[in-house]
Specification:
3-stranded antiparallel beta sheet
Amino acid sequence: PQTVTYEHTDSGNFAGRVCSITALGEYNAVTGGDQILFDLALIIQFPPGSTILIPSAILRKGNMPISVGETHLSFTQYFAGGL
């Protein structure tokens, strides 16, 4: 499996809280899997086991693809908006 997300926000999340994104799998973090925070103009090397806390409802984000034969999964936790 190769989890790849393109530039997006999570509009269903509660804007006043952060979400947690954890990278899982086996991939070379030097060549792929980076987290991209578009609004902050940051590309963050994100090896397996890394976790980041971001306000996903208001911050545009995505991640870089990995190489063929590698695996990349994301475990995401968030506060749902509108509850």
